[in-house]
Amino acid sequence: MMVSSMSPAASIAIVGTGPAGEAAARGCLAHGAAVTVFDEQPRTGGNIDRVGQTTPATAFEQFCDAHPNAQLLASTRVLSVDSEKCIWFDAGAGAQSRCFQAVILACGAYDLHDPLPGLPSPAVSSAGALQALLKGQSIVPAGKIVIAGAGPFLQVVAAGLLRAGGRVTHVIDRLRFSDYLRLAPWGLGVPINALEFMQTRWQLLRNGVSVRHGTHVQSVCANTLTTRQGEIIKFDRLGLTERFVPHTQLARTAGCELRDDPIGGYWAVNTDTLGRTSQPGIYVIGEGQGIRGWRHARLSGKRVVASVMADVIGQVNVAIPGRWRRAFLVGFGRALEHAQQRRCISPSTPDAIICPCEGTRLAAVDKAVGLGLADLSSIKVVTRCGMGPCQGRYCEAQVTDRIRAAGLSPVGALNQQAFTRPLSVAEVINDSD
To answer: What is the rounded distance in angstroms from the CA atom of residue 389 to the CA atom of residue 377?
Structure first.
């Protein structure tokens, strides 16, 4: 591979070390850039390749240690990114900032569930949280484990817990098996997806796990869930995931344009196919472009190298890989989102909590929308949705759904103009002042 001659090396920041961030880092370093990689976790890999703290150094960690132009800042919280490509971050000694010639955001996504009566319960978490605890801390819940919600991710989590010795009794998926069969045409471009799905399903059935398709969770109370079919299932730990939402908070602080995705049910960053955003020098890859899976995330990390090299140093001969593969991966992701939307039942229980941080209930949001409010900032003022510590990460998608359910078009995502995480005053005060 040709390495461009740059003096000094172009300085590029990458936030996130999952498949997208790692691919982007390796590609930019191969073209002679100086790359600083940030990750709030102590180990690299993101959610998909997360490892425990006592695990030997990963291949990417070894690669960064050995490369003269690479700097890996693990256990470092990125607090904000501005339009001038300056990053505020906290590595444990308080907030500080650095500016770069380009910033690539590979922040991934997080899972959530729709409002349900009876929640929250200390025995209930997202399925993604159970997976993170297993991979990062080797923690397996005791007792009966039920995984519920929608999509193939449920089977992946259940199988992982089984391999670690967990007692998984049920996987409850609102998607029908026929919905998965409809994905087959897109799967032809990525046959390994279908193979992994069938292998995981066989593992669950072989271990006696009851896999229920076309089954919705109606309510959750203490250690019991009730399905819409009236079945009552007891559990000691429930992992509930009904969708994934892109992590876009840092892109918002940088002023990047967002787009409402009514099929996926979230706000994603508006990018071109090579990760360029509306802000020059700010790039978003992976799930920030839309929920398309980890294989698409890795490919987007490889593809963004061409746009960064062209924009930052004028190198326009960088190959752009995977045009056709990208089309299949995006098509598969969209087809899955269509299936999830088709099987979604809008929550109708007024007492269901829609904003766990503030305790706001569904009825309050529906009342605000009934007044004609369709912009999330106004609804935030009226209902306090988005004012809690998570700053709207978990309620924004649900509030947007309520706007659509009322026949209105959502106007603007929640603003994010300050730090994306709560900070004490002491963390941002310069002691020398």
So the answer is: 16
